[in-house]
Amino acid sequence: MSIKIIGTGAYVPEKVVTNDDLAKLVDTSDEWIMQRVGVSQRRVSVDETASDFAVKASLAAIKNAGIKPEELDLIIAASVSAENICPTVAGTVQKEIGATCPAFDINSACSGFLFALDTAVSFMARGTYENILVIGAERLSKIVDWTDRSTCVIFGDGAGAAVITKGEGYLGSKLFTQGDDSVIKIPSFGGTSPFYTAEKPAPYIFMDGQETFKFAVNKIVNDIKELVSKCGYTLDDIDHVVTHQANIRIIDYASKRLKLSKDKFFVNIEKYGNTSSASVPIALAELDASGKIKRGDLLVMSAFGGGLSSAACLIRW
Ligand code: UT7
Which domains does the chain have, with CATH numbers? Predict the structure, then answer.
């Protein structure tokens, strides 16, 4: 039993923070951020949570799919920046949209949406599920250290969602984890136990940018190559590439090293920055809404990041 994607949706908060706005907070410039990362602005929450974003993206995806919330059999959400550990983002979405199905969250950082999608495909293989909602939602502005110029200029807030149903579109996937806390780490709240004596690191994103960059380029290129070949296709067969929007230079490298035209890569990093697990589903929803992807097209999606982790999947749209 495979799946097809029948609806996509995205939501980003209204507040736009430009590079010039950030240059007033830390020692940076529009020129540096555009050249080194490719981000011109990002959306930042003023009063909404990751779950609020997820609800709006989910309603858009369900509407796009032409189904009702009661027709969902499962909701899976990925997030590293949810307001609450419990209730989960998926559980909050279930309540707010009026669904009654089971719902749970997973965490695989920036690869989270593709891990969630692959998990949904496995549930679909039971043969008893009709429709599953998969979400990536982040309020990274909550866990960014706004005095650290090496991270605060990169990240943004938002959510994306997709509805999957029975079909024959999911051709294969590749998941990877390399447990490591030296390259990317997001400590959670350390607590106030008077009995705990070990160090309690600040609950902000730590990222060794250069090491992450090397990991990202290596994974995006090799994951796509290996997956496409494993599924019996060549890179020439690919019509669209949706990758994690982490750095425009990573996408440029991937395009060159895979010898795949840059036109095939969907790019929106300039508008939103890096939205972690929301990045791939927001890009997918925008590609879908653009009308450029047609039924029957071959789409490869790839994500990488904290964990360390990476994920890719090949889809016949
Ligand atoms: O979502 C998870 C996956 N994440 C990624 O894939 C991120 C991958 N990494 C990157 O995108 C890049 O490594 C960064 C954008 C994070 C950093 O770019 P970089 O070209 O690797 O910069 P760098 O860390 O090597 O720093 C180069 C210089 C340093 O100055 P010196 O030591 O050469 O004088 C930094 O202090 O740039 C400086 N710098 C900045 N300058 C102006 C670092 N951040 C900034 C800044 N504005 N915001």
Answer: 2-168 (3.40.47.10), 172-316 (3.40.47.10)
